[in-house]
Amino acid sequence: MKVKICGIKTIEDIQSLNRYKPDFAGFVLSKRSKRFVSYERAVELMRSLDPAIRTVGVFLDNPVGEIETYAAFDFWQLHGYREDETPKGRKIIRAYSVKTREDIARAERSEADYILLDHGLGGTGKQFDWSLLDVKRDFFLAGGLNEENLKGLPVRPFALDVSSGVETDGKKDDEKIRRFIESARRL
User: Fold this and answer.
1) Closest CA to 96 of 53, 131, 71, 133
2) What's the domain range around 127?
3) Is 6 a catalytic residue?
4) How many Å from the N-terminal Cα to the C-terminal Cα in the chain?
5) Which of 118, 138, 169, 173 is catalytic?
6) Active site annotation includes 169
7) pTM across the whole model
8) In sequence order, what E strands does 24-123 have?
9) What percent of the chain has pLDDT over 70?
10) What is the CATH number of the domain that holds 7?
11) DSSP sequence for 57-72
């Protein structure tokens, strides 16, 4: 199972990722997030990132034309954008807030390369009702993930997306990152 560590902000975060080798590193470029980094800072951090780790630019309120200028990322992850608001130039991970089975069905119809199923618009640290997970395509699972609740996953997603579940006092925690990745790899 693949792992994405999201909300990367510091060189210490990068060092942890290089040590434990998740598959994806997420950089949040929405100023509404407490995990916001500027594009320039993300590019600077990515210079020190193991090139085998794929990079994801995470967007919530950025204009589509602006997103298209952020070419350093391997993927663009979109939260809250309509299907007709899809930037061109990178693989797309489209995030969906899940409250009902219809939310899952809507996500499955997406033309995005991948879908991400989450609670709210992302970054809430809350889990949605996993009994709704009957998904017919590859997806990223997000929302309140941590080392402890991985054992209760009712399905095997393409990837797990974690941020607050590997933090202590709002900062990435090297030991929590290690344990989360090891737990995910054992599934």
Assistant:
1) 133
2) 2-186
3) yes
4) 7
5) 118
6) no
7) 0.94
8) 24-28, 54-59, 75-79, 91-97, 114-118
9) 97
10) 3.20.20.70
11) EEESS--HHHHTT-TT
